[in-house]
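For the sake of transparency, this paper describes our internal protein records without simplification. Because each token names a local backbone shape, the row as a whole describes the fold. One such record is reproduced below, unchanged from the form in which we store it:
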Amino acid sequence: MIVTRSWLNEWIDLSGISTEDIAKTFNSIGLEVDRVHEYRVPKKIVFGRVLECEKHPDADKLNVCKVDVGSGVRQIVCGAANVRAGLDVVVATVGAVMPSGLAIKPVKLRGIASDGMICSAGEIGLPDLGKGIMELDSSIGKYELGQEVSENTILNDDLIEIELTANRGDCLSIRGVARDLSAAFDRPIKEYVVTDNDEKRGVGRILALTHENSLCVNLRYKALDLKELTLPMVIALRLAQIEEKRDTDVESLLYYVTQSTGVILRAYARDFFTSDKESVAKLTVGEDAKAFACIKSSANKIASIIGVNQSDDSKVKNENSTLFLEASYIPPDVISKKMADNKVEADAMFYRTSRGSEPELEGGLSYCVDLIESCSSSTTYGGSIEHLYSFKEKIVKVTKQEIDAIIGANIDKSVVTKIMKNLGFDTSKSSTDVFVIHVPQFRHDIVNKQDIVEEIVRMVGIDNIPSKPFLLEEENRLEDNYFEYKKRSIYRHRGAQSGFFESVHFIFDEKKVLQKYGFATTKEELELLNPIVQTLDTLRPTLLTGLLKAASQNVKNGYAAVSLFEIGSVFTPLREESLNAAFLMSGNKEHESLTNGGKPAEVDFAYFTQKIADVVGDVELKEYKTMHNLSHTYQTAQVLQNGVVLGELFRVHPEVEKEYGLQSTFLCELDFSKLSYGLKIAKKTSKYQASFRDLSLLMPKDMSYEKVKNLIQASEIPNLIRFYPVDRYTDETLGDTMSLSLRFVLQSYEKTLEEEDITAVMDKILEELNKELGIGLR
């Protein structure tokens, strides 16, 4: 946002305040100053008036002028196409040194003496206003012939460029910035002077406004007969200073008023809304095909999308015609959401409406009409026509105690009231201890008491709040997010140490593939609205498909052994997020080498299970059937740790392996939140020697090992440390039974076990197995 000192001074009296202080104040109230630039016209450059202008006798493009410079009449040869008698100009007299370094001296041009130079804006250090010399008018203030131009405050201005945050749309105008300065300097902001002559022809004679339904938009219209519009020099100069240029004088003037007041203005040609037979133009406020609020003609032609763009056909092309002026306001959240849902082409005004324009339409429109009337022979129709929407007023309540507690200092109530008033907030309904603050419509960024306190702090000034000693109370500053990060880091390192390579994927996946393999995908009403690509069109419910794709790509790149893992987010159909860890091994257990004769063995179920245990610790496997179609029918297991289900482990179905071009492939997916993490507590171990005994049990083939295990664990047999299966044997002689060999580890904390102690334990085990399951020794 670019402002100038003289432009600000039209809205707030800045006398006695230096530009340096203004810039410092901007920084202190949160409007960061990006740069400050001074326009200073050199000495001996004065105001003059061209009295006579005749063609040079020996040069077609030169003119010989008689110029009154106050102290006398000078003869000056000028090559500007727009020089003419009666024109007030800027003259560099003999002895002046131009910003370019050129020194003005008496010269002869094609034999004619020239005593000075008539200047363009660029030649005296101002922004370029186009071809030709400067054409002065009363808009730059009073001046006398011969007066130094360096004394004029409009032509010797200070420019300040402010870096605004996206939420401060209220400061996208000179008046909006002046409003913040009003609160900072405690100086009143100048109000609009709304004028309207009741004796004029009424606007209702030529304009009628209707609406199709209730739309969230405010509109106000005036009509005028535009004649002989001449753009004042101050407008041309200031538009050049803010680096804005428009195609026509009407558009330039409207943009100037919008920059000054913040009110969004457009001008429509009356002919767009009428035919030869119609005397009254009919404007309709409705919606277009994409539900944007728009202005239509009686022929259903769209003149503009409110706050977004205007059609070229509806713009004013003849600057001596009847036109309609429109001031509009639409809430920034409404128009931004519409644009996010349905992209349409936008013009420069959308930037302002999407960040919050000025809702005070009457003042801005009146300001515009007065300006047009002052620089043209136009006549305005009396009255105005409007479309109003009743916006819900925002009210924030905050106590004096809350303000002081948040700031950490005691701010006088009168100071708070004055700041709020100067910023445009209404506090008239406040009580002794409670501020009831009515938030103005132009401050859409204020929603809660913290926002109100922020406004107070930036106006009081952070440097003006007394500092207090910090009371240091040492606490554990390690929060949950640190421990979550640490846990994730530890398991990533374990995975890498166990031979797995980390794979990272998008949290999106292809819905068609997931549904093919039986995974529950995101509900339709919660699905992604704008996927990155078609193959990433839903939130992933599993990490497995991503690892399969990565493994397939590795195999295509020539790798015979692939070991991958990933720790990442997955989502339920209701978009509930959780963290999983997944592992994959495919192909060979190891690389070809001398030790394996160049023929390494393939990964198998036991090997993969051991690798998972290396990462997550000791686990148990339980018979399990997966809910999806990726797994092998007979090689699946549920993974448990300390009785808690962590996830699943399986071999990939041969058909799926074939689809992805993989050899024997195993996958495991675990709930990361259930993996053990915390302080390791040392357990007491026996100092006495352990003993090992094996039992070969004869049991039915259809009996699961889990039954045997659960029975032995439930028996709580003394000195039995652990046990595990070591062999399974079947042949024809055994019929429907099989031999299962178990190894038992026996150890006492009190002594070395003797043979009779070991025998007693084994007998107890056999007794329980025979009693409960009917099985015994082979």
Notes: The longest helix spans residues 480-497. DSSP finds 18 helices and 35 strands in the chain. The mean pLDDT is 90.
